[in-house]
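Let's practice the habit of predicting before peeking. Look at the sequence and jot down your guess about where helices and strands might fall. Then scroll down.
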Amino acid sequence: MKFQSVFLALCLLPVLAVAQTYNLDASTNGQTINTCEATLFDEGGSAGNYADDSDYEITFASTNNSCIRAVIKFYEFEHECDYLIFYDGTSSTSGIFLDSVTTFPQSTVDERGNAYYAQSGFITIRITSDGAVNKAGFEVSIDCPEHCLPPSTANTMPAGDSCEINTPICDLNGYRGNTSDAYSTDHQYIDYDHDGIFCGSINNNSWMSFMADSTDVVLDVWVRNCQGSFYSG
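Done guessing? Here is the structure:
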């Protein structure tokens, strides 16, 4: 009887959902996957490198009638030769270009944690590589968050022009800033000694501050009206 009771208790335990794992390779190229929970790797999987001369794409479709999100967990590509590209839409040809990601860790810009929201409910992810040199590739998580649209920013206060006169923000649930020429150049001599840390100045940046009430914080940033090349990274 004791054995039967233990067995029954085990059978009543809830089954935990596990995100499906996919590799972006020839077998998944051009496929549309309906899911709100997945992990995507390059064709080398979680431990191998992607191959030379790759050009594959996969589309994930939301299953909750909302937007869908892709978050970069890890990436490493040959500098400005191999790319991971994100589109809002059902394919790379019909979708809206969101971003392209290349070098890391050689670059000073770490884009791990970048989140890409597809308002259409479809997000297409593409990898391209040239004919030589391959790296560890990428890991991207897929989910369908509750909030994808920017909140209202009707009562936004202008940000400060320097760190010393930063604007305190009491409510981060909707803040709109800009990088117009109303803000002056900062750190003009950041690489004055030519140590290779940074090769320019920081232009038109603005400053704000807030008081954290937790040890962890997640900031959703919506970027609009940016100018740059297709493979700007």
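How did you do? The mean pLDDT is 80.
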